TrEMBL record:
GO BP term, pick one: tRNA processing
Transmembrane segment boundaries: none
A UniProt-annotated Pfam family: Intron_maturas2
Gene Ontology MF, one: RNA binding
Protein's recorded name: Maturase K
Length: 231
């Protein structure tokens, strides 16, 4: 949220500096000559078109920065920005971020390495999670006097899922289970005492529970714990 607030304030500052420049230009056009008079008319025509453009786009871009659904994550040189805006707005935000980093921090980003994915159509693998935005239907029962009726609506819900198949593949490589997810006895644990096995099992379960605590569906996490318990 601090990063988004910083972007919001910097964008407002840029727009205000443009209006200050326009005001200064308008005050300097005071010559009564014919050429300067035509230049002044041309300047005011451009100013009118510019104001129309700002009136149309400025509130939309500010909404993009102030949208409470906007989330930002940075991890090991990777950035992810989640919003419910349209593809066009996210494209504008993409190039604004590129120009912002180049002009203010001399950080040269490559636009072709910034990808925009629609999570409603596909799932995104990021930091061990599967990110998706799907339509979540829900039913509300309403009652008016003696009559009751059901209202079914749908809202977009952003979900963070546990990638069960890649995790089972990793456990299969470590000889905790088969490729189908069936637990098998791990030979390396045969020489350990019961207390060491319990301690290692508890540490792995705590790490998994802590990392995937924000997952919206934890059934896959319970399956991983089941494999570890019986291996």
């Amino acid at each position: 949220q601090r990063f988004l607030l910083f972007l919001y304030n910097s964008y407002v500052c840029e727009c205000e500096s443009i209006f200050v420049f326009i005001r200064n230009q308008s005050s300097n056009l005071r010559s009564p000559s014919y050429g300067a008079f035509l230049a002044r008319i041309y300047f005011y025509l451009k100013l009118e078109q510019f104001l129309k453009l700002c009136t149309k786009n400025f509130p939309i871009i500010l909404w993009l920065f102030k949208d409470p659904f906007l989330h930002y994550v940075r991890y090991q040189g990777k950035w992810i920005l989640v919003s419910r805006g349209t593809f066009l707005l996210l494209t504008k935000l993409k190039y604004y971020l590129v120009n912002f980093c180049q002009c203010n921090f001399s950080l040269w980003l490559q636009p072709r390495r910034i990808y925009i994915n629609q999570s409603s159509n596909q799932r995104i693998d990021f930091m061990g999670f599967l990110l998706s935005g799907r339509l979540n239907p829900f039913v509300v029962r309403s009652q008016m006097l003696e009559n009751s009726f059901l209202i079914e609506n749908g809202i977009k819900k952003f979900e963070t899922l546990v990638p069960i198949m890649p995790m089972i593949g990793s456990l299969a490589k470590a000889k905790f289970c088969s490729v189908l997810g069936h637990p098998i006895s791990k030979p390396a644990w045969a020489d350990l005492s019961d207390s060491d096995i319990i301690r290692r099992f508890g540490r792995m379960c705590r790490n998994l529970s802590h990392y995937y605590s924000g997952s919206s569906k934890k059934e896959s996490l319970y399956r991983i714990k089941y494999i570890l318990r019986l291996s």
